[in-house]
Amino acid sequence: MSTRTVPTPQDLREAPKVLLHDHLDGGLRPSTVIDLADETGYGGLPTTDVGELSRWFVAAADSGSLETYLETFAHTCGVMQTEEALARVAAECVEDLADDGVVYAEVRYAPELFVERGLSLDAVVEAVQDGFERGRKNAAERGKQIRVGTLLCAMRQHARALEIAELTVRYRDQGVVGFDIAGPEAGYPPTRNLDAFEYIRTSNAHFTIHAGEAFGLASIWEAIQHCGAERLGHGVRIVDDITTGTDGAELGRLAAYVRDRRIPLELCPSSNVQTGAVGSIGEHPVGMLAKLRFRVTVNTDNRLMSDCTVSSEFAALVDAFGFDWADVRWCTINAMKSAFIGFDERLDIIDNVIKPWYAARV
Ligand SMILES: O=c1[nH]cnc2c1ncn2[C@@H]1O[C@H](CO)[C@@H](O)[C@H]1O
Ligand SMILES: [Zn+2]
């Protein structure tokens, strides 16, 4: 096969893939939301019909604004307030990712959103880790090998970032590989959480920041130059610092810095269309950023709200930008290089899982 072979959705599912940006509370199966609402006595769901609920999440998230998009999480978080519920959601998450051919994933969530019924932050983390391990074993029994690292998020609008950063470091030897801040971007600059980022850095731990999604370059600049973020959650607005003309593209100082330093962009095309960050997949900067050789990675953000998988995101890029196997392999290796696990473990997956599979296609 040559690079000219067009990857089909089925081939893309089989290809080993790496996912760096996926929210646990944005990836529940619709049927699980309904089961858990019933089991935990959550009465707020808009419908208890699986098909209708699935469509409801997509339609409600398809709002054109990050703030409205985020309102849908009231229901997923609403049904995730017990250890059993958290473990089930975590296990199913790993199984669903493994079934989509994901071989390494970093899955994130904000522990502070699951304490409404009295769970401690530590109990939340332990329940999720138990679930991830159960999911990994179930997938392995079906012949699907997957490794999962956890990222803990602090919510920008709350003031608990240092506490969550400490939780991250406390569980670093139990599968928590990094820290993030999430939630509404406008009005909540990342510099509000400098103490947390400093704590993570001085502990030799890792973090990414949601930046440059709903807000522009200033937020990316702060995340990198003031906070020291290693990766950018979305970062898609970096295009605002790139001008394209007849002579090709010209990078401003920030865009050049991001590219020169190989700062990974955790791009999430479908999510960006829903929040209004971009008009359509075809207009998404991922095509241009890939051509300019930024360190592009392709991610789901929220599989429930976008009704997507990693392979369906790649399929959309095949359709919109003519991505071929070389592009899929490049994004996959970019993502694996950018993961928060150790260098030797990243290399092992690149050399022994990713490269051998793609060798027959690229
Ligand atoms: O694209 C996003 N931008 C910012 N915040 C997000 C996005 N997707 C989800 N969350 C927020 O992150 C929390 C922890 O998982 C979710 O509860 C949601 O509020
Ligand atoms: Zn996100």
Automatic annotation (TrEMBL):
GO terms for cellular component: cytosol. GO terms for biological process: adenosine catabolic process; hypoxanthine salvage; inosine biosynthetic process; nucleotide metabolic process; purine ribonucleoside monophosphate biosynthetic process. InterPro entries: A_deaminase, A_deaminase_dom, Ado/ade_deaminase, Metal_Hydrolase. Zn(2+) binds at residues 21, 23, 210, 301. The record marks 234 as: Important for catalytic activity. The keyword Metal-binding applies. It catalyses: adenosine + H2O + H(+) = inosine + NH4(+); 2'-deoxyadenosine + H2O + H(+) = 2'-deoxyinosine + NH4(+). Gene3D superfamilies: Metal-dependent hydrolases. Keywords: Hydrolase, Metal-binding, Nucleotide metabolism, Zinc. Residues 16-355 form the Adenosine deaminase domain. Its EC number is 3.5.4.4. Its cofactor is Zn(2+). Binds 1 zinc ion per subunit. GO terms for molecular function: 2'-deoxyadenosine deaminase activity; adenosine deaminase activity; zinc ion binding. The active site is at 213 (proton donor). The keyword Metal-binding applies. Belongs to the metallo-dependent hydrolases superfamily. Adenosine and AMP deaminases family. Adenosine deaminase subfamily. PANTHER family: ADENOSINE DEAMINASE. Catalyzes the hydrolytic deamination of adenosine and 2-deoxyadenosine. This is Adenosine deaminase. It comes from Saccharomonospora piscinae. The lineage of its organism: Bacteria, Bacillati, Actinomycetota, Actinomycetes, Pseudonocardiales.
